[in-house]
Amino acid sequence: MKSWWYAWRALVWVTLGRLWWSVHTLLLLFPTAALMLFVLRYRERFAQAQPEQVIEAFAQFTQTVVVMLVVSFLLPVVALGFGTTGLGGDREEGTLVFLLTRPLPRWSIALGKWAATVPLVVLFTWGAFAGVCWLMGPAGRMAWRGYALPLFWGAMAYGSFFHLLATWVRYPTVVGVVYALFVEALLGNMPGVIKRFSIGYYVRSWIYELGAPWGVSPPEMFVPLEATSCAWTLIAITLGSLALSAWVLQTKEYIQQER
Amino acid sequence: MAEICFDQVTRFYGPVIGINQVSFTLGPGVAALFGANGAGKSTVMRLASGQIRPSLGQVSINGLPAWSTLAKRHLGYCPDVDRFYEEMSGWEFVQFMVQLHGYSSREARRRTEEALELVGMSARAQRPLATYSQGMRQRIKLAQALAHQPEVLLLDEPLAGVDPGGRRQLLELFAHLGDQGCTVLISTHMLEEVEQLAQVVLVLVQGRLVAQGTLDEIRSWLADRPLIVALEAEPLRPLAGELIGWEEVRSVQIDGSCLVVQVRQAGMFFRRLNAAAAQGRWQLRRMEPLDTGAEAVFRYLHQRS
Questions:
Q1: Top CATH class, B222-304
Q2: Whether this model's pTM surpasses 0.80
Q3: Range B4-219 classified under CATH 3.40.50.450
C-alpha cells in the first residue's frame, strides 16, 4: 500500500541522517567546543562567589556569554550551517532532480526538509547552550531556565529563514554568510529601528526583558522590544519563512546546471 | 494506457528557445529521441518529467499535466546527470528513491531487490556509491527509475559509460519493458545504440521535431535527400555528359580527376548509377558522398519538415 506519509517520513529521516553525519556537524563542533572552553575559563572569575553573588554572575554571564557568544555568534552559525544545507545541499549537489520527479507534492518536500533541518538547529543550539550553562554552575542553570524559550524560537526563526534562502537562491550558503555579516552583525548593532531587520535583535530583546529583574540591562542605544512582541515576531518569521519556502518550491523551476 | 503527449509545446529559457512547437504522442513500446547536443533533448526530458513547465502548449503523462504530482506516479526518470548521495550505498539510494513513492519499508526493500536484480547490480549494491564505476552508477540510476514499475519510463542517455556487454543486457531490458506495455522514451545522440529496439524515432534539430516515424521511414526519407557525390571514373567526360542529362542530377562539375555531382534524390541516383555502371560504358573507380555528416542530414530533415 502506498502512502504519502511513508514517503515524507523517509525524506525527513534521510535528510536528518545526512545532515547529522555531515562535515557541517563536525565543523560546528569546533566553535561549540571553543565556547565551552571559554566558559570553563570564564567561570573561574566567579569561583569564589558567595550564594548571594550568583545573581551578579548570572547578569554578567547573560551579557558576555548568552547574548554576545550564544545568540550573536553560535546561533546564526549553527542555523547557517544546517539551515542552508538541508535543501541547499540537494541543489548544490544536483540531487534535487531525484526528489522533484517523485510523486511528492513540492510543498511537502520543502516541509520535509524543514522538518529535518530546523529541529536539528534547535537541538544543536539547545545542546550547546545546555552544556555551557552546566559548565557555568548555578548562574548557568538560572540562564538555562530563563532563556531556553527565547533561544528555541530564535533557533526556529533563524533555521526557517536560512531554509527559505536554500529554496530561493542558487548559492544559499554565500547569501547566508552575507546576510549574517551585513544584517545580523552590522545592522543588528546599529542604533535606531534599523536593527529590527535582524532576527537576533528580537532574541536579545526577549532575553533582556527576562533578565531585567536580576539586573540584566541592555547596552546603551539598544532599545529592546517587549518580550511578547519579540515572541510573536519570531513565530511569524518561522511560519512565514516556512510558508514562503513551500510556495517557492511549489512554483519555482530548478534547472540543473552542468558542472 | 501509458502515454506521453506533447501538444504544440514551446519552451523558452529567457530569450533562448529550447524547443519550438513540438508535438508528438507516444504509446507503449520503445521510442528514441535523437538529436545532436543542444538539439533540445534534455528540454523534452525535463518537460516530460515535470521538472519544468512549457512556455506554450501542453505536456501530459497518461492524460495528466506532467508538472502535477499525480503524473509522477506513472513516471520513472533516469536523468543524464551523474549526481548521487555519494555516502549512501547503491542499495540505500534505490531504497530511498522507492520509499519516496510512498511504499512501506518492507515493500521498498522488496522492490529495491527486484530492481537491482533487473539491472544486474544485486551483488555490488552494498558498496558506497562513491566507489562505483560510471557504468555501475548508470545501472543504479536505472534501478531507481524502474523500481516502482512505472508505466512511462524516461531515460536520458541511459547507456553512457556502460560496457558493451552491459549495453546489450540493458537494451534487452528496455525492449522487454516496451513489450510489457511500458512507454519507454530513450534520449540519445547515438541512434545506432537503440536502432534495434526503437519502434519510433523522434529527430530533434535546433529545438524542432523534424522527423517522427519508424527508423525505416526515416531512412527512406534520407534515401531521397539531396547529396553531393564525388565520382572517379574512366573516361570522365562522357560520364559527366551522361549524368547532366539525368533527372536526379542537379549539376555536375569536373574537379581535376573527379566529378562532383549534386544529386536531387540520392536513392534513385545510386540505383541508376549502379545500373549504368553494370552496362560497362565507363569504369567507376571511386564513389564518395561528400555531405553525409549529421549536420547535412539534420539540415535536410529540417528543410523537409
A1: alpha beta
A2: yes
A3: no
